[in-house]
Design brief:
Chains A, B: Keywords: DNA-binding, Phosphoprotein, Transcription, Transcription regulation, Two-component regulatory system. 2 copies of one chain form a homodimer. The first copy, chain A, is of the alpha/beta class. In chain A, 41% of the residues lie in helices and 23% in strands. Chain A is built from 8 helices and 12 strands. Chain A has helices spanning 11-23, 34-43, 60-69, 85-94, 106-118, 153-164, 172-179, 188-200, and strands at 3-7, 27-31, 48-52, 75-80, 98-101, 126-129, 132-135, 140-142, 148-150, 169-171, 205-208, 212-215. In chain A, the strands form 3 sheets. In chain A, strands 2-1-3-4-5 form a 5-stranded parallel β-sheet, sandwiched between helices. Chain A is elongated, with a radius of gyration of 20 Å. Chain A binds a DNA duplex (30 and 30 nucleotides) through helix 8.
DNA sequence: CGATGTCATGCGCCGACTGCTTGTGGTCGA
DNA sequence: TCGACCACAAGCAGTCGGCGCATGACATCG
């Protein structure tokens, strides 16, 4: 599922856009100002960012510039009430991939997002877990603050199985059979949970006494 | 140098656009109708195609559709006198990456082409990797500090495959099948990774134990 | 036409890391 | 309070990867 971020201070407009896009099958996150947009954009993997030009806390242009400076590769579509050519040029040269003037047609926005999505085919394939996510391509975990943690093959596999259903309790036996050989020792899962906790923090994998383990937030 | 193709039947407009873009440093080819545009688009490597919607011989929409069917990856910017939302949506869904209504501002066209060019790093000219890049024409790597490192054909090919998705883990088998003969020895990839590290520094290619290699920053 | 150098490839040893086991002490729950 | 369950540490063996070296093909140049 494609992941979008809508950064727009007008609540009505933001929610209307978000709902429309969500109805079309996108996962949509929202941010009401530039600062929160920056934080989400840096810490979560998106395919397309829809960014208003005029934003409180951090201007849309600055937002894109700062995201690009941190090597965020997501496509950016800028919305604006400022319709002049120079505004559009400034937006595009700041790193936006497309520029749409308000008032705009929702169907056109949707079509332009489809066009941008076509180009991110091999981009970030990721599994979200709370505020962090698993980068399936790079095979490492990304924490809420953006820190990347490299995991060994088994560690990553175990975490991925847990992340398939975050919050659910996964019995030891299920984890052992999915991640390790059936013949492995009974305590193998414990040990790898220990490794994960050592790398990702104490609270990431929670013990449910007598039942198994459960994934908390990354 | 970026390569553009302008497909437009209005001679005056085509030449004006072409000259303006040529002045900005692009290599620009021209085609006066869809058929000739199709032929050029299929046989030569372009970064961006500027295509009029209404064309003799072959309609702009059909042109894009046929190019896409033949896996031409160049970005397409569609020009049109038809300004309705439905036209724009039809163009975008046919495979265009951007859509600009006539009359348009030449500076905006130029800015939109710049935006499209940013995204075609992997097309023809140079592949950006972190602060450095690959010079596809000279077949050597340029480091962050500007140092040029000349690579042998195999070394360069291996680096290029890795650079297609920097940060992602590339399994050995995938690298061997893409860069070397299938029949090559199992350790051939290791050896060439060793060569790359020797020339570019230890950190450029990272090992992911049991899985493959990953490209760091140049 | 021979000499020289570069490139592609194969082989093999050694070191490093991973995966897994085992054991001990601590914690939980009834 | 007791038994079961769990956390953690350390160690071991096997595999994987790093790297040097040897060989042969090919191009280049004297």
């Amino acid at each position: 599922m494609r992941r979008l971020l809508v950064v727009e201070d007008d609540t009505d407009l933001r929610e209307m856009v978000s709902e429309t896009l969500a109805d079309e099958g996108y996962h949509v996150d929202q941010a009401p100002d530039g600062q929160r947009g920056l934080h989400l954009g840096l810490t979560r993997p998106y395919d397309v960012l829809v960014i208003d030009r005029r934003l409180p806390a951090l201007d849309g242009l600055d937002l894109i510039t700062r995201l690009r400076a941190r090597a965020v590769a997501a496509r950016a579509l800028m919305l604006t009430a400022l319709g002049t050519v120079d505004d559009r040029i400034a937006g595009l040269d700041a790193g936006a991939d497309d520029y749409l003037a308000k008032p705009f047609d929702l169907d056109e926005l949707s079509a332009r997002i489809r066009a941008l999505c076509r180009r991110t085919a091999d981009a970030t394939e990721a599994l979200r877990v709370g505020a962090g996510h698993l980068d399936l391509a790079a095979r490492d975990a990304v924490l809420a603050d953006g820190t990347r943690v490299s995991l060994s093959a088994r560690e990553f596999e175990l975490l991925r199985v847990l992340a398939a259903r975050p919050g659910a309790v996964h019995p030891r036996a299920a984890l052992r059979s999915r991640v390790f050989d059936e013949a492995a020792a009974a305590s193998i899962v414990d040990t790898y949970v220990y490794y994960l906790r050592r790398k990702l923090g104490r609270t990431v994998v929670q013990t449910v006494h007598g039942l198994g383990y459960r994934l908390g937030a990354l």
